[in-house]
Amino acid sequence: MLRLISLELQKLWLNKTSRVLIIISFILPFTVLILSSIKINFFGLFTLELGELGIFNFPIIWHITTFFASYFKFFFAIVVVSMIGNEYSNKTLKQNLIDGLSKKEFILSKFYTIVFFSLCATLLIGLASFFIGLYYSSYTEASIIFREVEFLLAYFVKLVGFFSLCLFFGMLLKRSAFALGFIFITWILELIIFGLMAWRIDGDFAGKIFNFFPIQSMYKLIDQPLQRVAMTKFPEKGDLAYDYAVHWYEIAIVLGWSALFIFLSYQLLKKRDL
Amino acid sequence: MEQPILTINNLTKKFGYLTAVKDLSFTIHKGNVYGILGPNGSGKSTTLGIVLNVVNKTQGDFHWFDGNTSTHDALKQVGAIIERPNFYPYMTAEQNLKLVCKIKGVDFSKIDEKLEVVGLLDRKGHKFRTYSLGMKQRLAIASALLNDPEILILDEPTNGLDPQGIHQIRQIIKDIAAGGTTILLASHLLDEVEKVCTHVVVLRKGEKLYSGRVDEMINSHGFFELKAEQQDALLELLESNTNFGKINIEGDLITAFLNEPMSASDFNKLMFEKGILLSHLVKRKESLEEQFLQLTDNQSN
Fold first, then answer.
1. Secondary structure of chain A as H, E, C letters
2. Is residue B163 in a domain?
3. Total-model pTM
4. What ipTM was reported for this prediction?
5. Which positions in chain B touch A273 (Cβ < 8 Å)?
6. How many domains does chain B have?
C-alpha cells in the first residue's frame, strides 16, 4: 500500500500544476479560517469579529469549519481528474501496466491517494478548528469540545466520496476537462430530476429520493450551518429548527456511492483495450 | 530442450467485426532472438499488447514461463517497449526511471548502470520532454532493462528514427542479445529482422504464415544465376532437367530455381560435360525479403 501511495505521490508532486493545486487546496481554507477568526478593524469605523457571533464556539465550530472547508475540495478535484487524464494523454497508463503494475493496483494507487489526501485535509481542519475553538469558546470541558466531532468524519467521507466520483468520471471520459464538465452536468441533472419529481409526484417524496443521488447525498452529509447560527440567536423562533445532525445512513449512502465508483472505474479499466 | 519463456495457444482477438489476431500459436524459448514479422496492421502490436496485459484477448490463452506465475508478476521479469516511448514529460530521466523501479520493485542503483548502457548518463537530470526521439527511445530501452529482464520485447524500436539513431538502437540490441537475453522484436522491416533474429514468426492479417528458424523459412534449395554464349542450348537443357523448376529469363541472365539440392560445382561439371560453357554462375538463396514476399503471395493466391 505504501508503495502504491509513493508511486502516485511522486507523479503528483513532480507535476507543477498539481503541486500548486494541492498546496492551494491546503493553504486556502486555512487562510480563510484564520483571517475570519481574527479581529479586523475597518479603518477605525467598525471592527469585524466573526468570533463574536459565537460561530467559533464548541461544538458548533466543527459544523461551521467542515461545511465551509468542503468548498475548497474543488481544487483537489481538478488534481484527481487530471491525474487520470494525464495518464491517458501521456500513454503512461499503458506503460505502467507493461512495467508490471496490475490494473487493480493502478486504481488502488489512485484511491489510496484520495483517501490519504482526505485524511490529511480532515486532520488539518480538525486541528485548526480545535485550536481556534479553544481560543474563542467559553466552554472548554472535553464533553462539550468533542460533542459533534462526527462532523469531521462526515467531512472525510464527503471528500472521499466526491473524489471517487471525480476518479470515475476521469476514467470514463479520459479527458480532464470533459470529466469536470460532466460532474457539473450531473449536478444540474440531479436538480432537474428533483424538480420534475417534486412537480409531478410530491415534494416530500422527491426530497427523500433526492438525498440518494450521488452529489446531493454528499452535500447532505453536512447541512448548511447558517440556519443553525440563526437558531442560536433567536431561540424563540421554533420554525427555524431543522435536522442538521450527521446520520449514519447519510454516511452509508456516500460510502456506497464511493465503493460503486471505485468498482466501476476498475471494471472500466479491465474491459478497456489500451 | 530450452525452457519456454512465453507460450501462446490459439490466441484470437476481435475488434468488433475485425479479427486482428486469428488462432495464433507459438512458443518462445530462452536464449534466442525472435522476430515477429508482418506488414502494418498484421496483428503484431495486438499480439504483444495481449501478452503484456494491456489488450484483452477474445479467445485462447497464453502463459509466461512455466505457467505458474500470474501475468502481472511475470511482467516484472519482462522488459517491454511498445510503439512510442511513454514517460512523464515533466519528470527527468532519472525520476522517470525511479518510478519504474518502484513499480518493478528494483533497487535505484540500477538506474545509473542502465543509463550508461544506452549512453544517457550525462543527460539524466534533464526533463523527458527536452529529449529527441532517439534519446527517448534509448531511455525506453534503459527502462526496459532496469530489472535485468529474462526477455526484452521491442515493438518497432527503430520506427521514425534517423539513420544514426537506427544504428545506435540496433547496436544496443545486438549487445544485449550477445549477453544472452532473449529478445522478441516486432518489425515490418525485413532487413532488421534478418540482421538481428535467429527465429521468426511471420504474420499476415492476424494469421501465422510461418514460425521457425529464419534460414529455414522457405524450403527452398536456392537458385542459380547463369549466363552463357549458347543460351538456347542452356535453356533446353534446364527445361529437360527435373532438378529445375521455374526458369526466368531477363536479357541474357537466366535464373533457374532448384527443386532439389545441387552444388554449384556439380552443376558446372554437368554443363561442361554437355559442352556448354558458362560465362556467369552464381548460386544464391532468396533474401528474407524475397522469401517473405513469396510467402505472403502464396497465401493470398
1. CHHHHHHHHHHHHCCHHHHHHHHHHHHHHHHHHHHHHCCEEECCCEEECHHHHCCCCCCHHHHHHHHHHHHHHHHHHHHHHHHHHHHHHCCHHHHHHHCCCCHHHHHHHHHHHHHHHHHHHHHHHHHHHHHHHHHHCCCCCHHHHCCCCHHHHHHHHHHHHHHHHHHHHHHHHCCHHHHHHHHHHHHHHHHHHHHHHHHHCCHHHHHHHHCCCHHHHHHHHCCCCHHHHHHHHCCCCHHHCCCCCCCHHHHHHHHHHHHHHHHHHHHHHHHCCC
2. yes
3. 0.85
4. 0.84
5. 15, 49, 54-56
6. 2
